[in-house]
Amino acid sequence: MDKNAITIAIPKGRLLPECMELFSGIGLTVKESLDGSRKLLFPSADGSVRFLIVRDKDLPTYVEYGAADMGIVGKDVLMEVGKDLLEPIDLGFGFCRIVLAKPAAAVMDPTGWGHIRVATGFPKITMDHFARKGEQVEIIPLYGSIELAPMVNLADRIVDLVSTGETLRQNNLVEVEEVMQVTARLVVNRASFKTRSDRIVPLIEAMRKVVSK
């Protein structure tokens, strides 16, 4: 592998197949299958880049600190972690939404949001959302089974990521409002963009062409 290979961080999980489809579209493939592999570092077939497979919430940190030159991650993660990164392209795939939801049986909103507890895996996004509206709520950070919180009276509302909304429906929750729309974004380390622009800019432009088709 080229010792000057560009390191690209990509997230485990739902975005991974679409990420690899994008890179295949610009001529970057891997010789090994990523499905079920425990490996976390894969060189491209031509050796020009290496792919670093990491948790989505960790990905901006890898890029910000230069462990990866660039990466792909959802806008929700970027907004939540608030890292200092370049964000040259909205890649358009991985579309989903962050929404505020409540139990279907809770027809009326209590007067005054000050006594409302909101469970979420996005405490910063949630706090910012209510701050913009001038409403104070109690944020309860949770990082799994958010829909359970209203059922056991841990929270009155939830803010969560939804795709089809089926999980909300199965747990007798209804959407109250949309907090933000989410798509995958290309992010680039600021120092790498300056010092390795001869390698990074062509990659950005190639991806931009694929996305714009």
Strand tally is: 11
Query: Rg from C-alpha positions?
Result: 20 Å
Numbering strands along the chain, what is their spatial order in the largest sheet?
2-3-1-4-11-5
Q: What is the overall number of helices?
A: 8
Helix content: 25-40%
Mean pLDDT score: 91
What global shape is seen? elongated
Q: What's the SSE pattern?
A: EHEEHEHEEEHEHEHEEHH
Structural class: alpha/beta
**N- and C-termini, Cα separation:** 31 Å
Strand content: 25-35%
Which secondary structure elements does this structure contain, and how are they paired or packed?
Blueprint: E1 6-11, H1 16-25, E2 41-43, E3 49-54, H2 59-64, E4 70-74, H3 75-81, E5 86-90, E6 96-103, E7 117-120, H4 123-132, E8 138-141, H5 148-151, E9 157-162, H6 166-170, E10 173-182, E11 184-188, H7 190-195, H8 197-212
In short, what is this structure?
The protein has helices at residues 16-25, 59-64, 75-81, 123-132, 148-151, 166-170, 190-195, 197-212, and strands at 6-11, 41-43, 49-54, 70-74, 86-90, 96-103, 117-120, 138-141, 157-162, 173-182, 184-188. By secondary structure, it is of the alpha/beta class.
Describe this structure in words.
The protein is an alpha/beta fold. It has eight helices and eleven strands. Strands 2-3-1-4-11-5 form a six-stranded mixed β-sheet. The protein is elongated and about 60 Å long. The two termini are 31 Å apart.
